[in-house]
């Protein structure tokens, strides 16, 4: 029955104009640029300022991300997916953009620890409501044959935002202070992402779904062994990537005795390589079976991390940065592409709500286990 529903709904001729697709891709690019690149990647830049100004420990300033993900993910992940399937990604993204921007503005003006946790909670909600989940559904609805390339382009926003946020933050802190810098970043998130999100359409013409279809139970997905293979595999890979990323600078500084400049160069090479990975893996996913692309990505991540055992050998750390970065670029992107191919686009919101919740928990817990 579920396959019949899937076939009847998804076989309708859809009007996907090039202009509308460009608008959708640009919207996702800048939403991910702002919510993930500027907010998620940028916040660790300010941890040492918080330690100095408030006297908090390193454990305290790094606990906001882990605690907020562990709280927000299980509570709101599936709920956000249900909203996307029921009402479309646009409304959820608007709320997410506002929450992410408000989070950074609040963190820039906080005066107590409870405010730190409150606004970090806002940041996590902004990520769930306006980050990868709704953007993956939006892109999946609007793109078919070129879905991999579209996803790869949109995910470039994360790498570019993460690369630029350190330069922007350095300049803003020098211009005034870190409170001012975080406030400006919060405003930038809203200014950049909100207008584009406001004018984007949830689906192409002809893709409107009747209410009864949207609320069709998806128990058949959870009865499929393939779902658990996808969930467990993505948890392992995202956990590995998160554990390596969170500890990379500590490894370079404390174990290899790198200077700040040398450590920054390695981290920048990882991010630059991730841009190549996003485009390359998106291109491959449109041409060969996506499961082979997923295997390639996971092999690259595993090889890259393994190279850290030989980091004392000259040049190996830069080989790590390139290989790991390419794998990192494709890692987050390939999961929704596989999910759409296996289960169809009409349950993508709820399905990715579950998968991304599991991935977020792995990403939060693994760095602690690595430590």
Question: What is the helix fraction of residues, given as a range?
Answer: over 70%
Query: Strand percentage, roughly?
Result: under 5%
What is the gyration radius calculated from CA atoms? 20 Å
Overall number of strands: 0
N-to-C SSE string, H for helix and E for strand:
HHHHHHHHHHHHHHHH
Question: Taking all residues together, what is the mean pLDDT?
Answer: 83
Largest sheet: none
Summing up helix and strand content along with how strands pair, one would put the structural category as mainly alpha
Give the CA-based shape. Answer: globular
End-to-end CA span: 48 Å
Spans with pLDDT under 50 lasting ≥5 residues?
1-12, 209-214
Our count of helices gives 16
Write the SSE topology:
Elements: H1 2-10, H2 18-40, H3 47-54, H4 58-87, H5 89-108, H6 113-130, H7 132-142, H8 147-175, H9 178-199, H10 211-214, H11 219-222, H12 225-255, H13 260-285, H14 290-306, H15 316-343, H16 348-370
Helix pairs in contact: 2-5, 2-6, 2-7, 2-8, 2-9, 4-5, 4-6, 4-16, 5-6, 5-7, 5-9, 6-7, 7-16, 8-9, 8-13, 8-15, 12-13, 12-14, 12-15, 12-16, 13-15, 14-15
Describe this structure in words.
It is a single chain. The chain has helices at residues 2-10, 18-40, 47-54, 58-87, 89-108, 113-130, 132-142, 147-175, 178-199, 211-214, 219-222, 225-255, 260-285, 290-306, 316-343, 348-370. The chain is mainly α and 371 residues long. Residues 1-12 and 209-214 have low confidence and may be disordered.
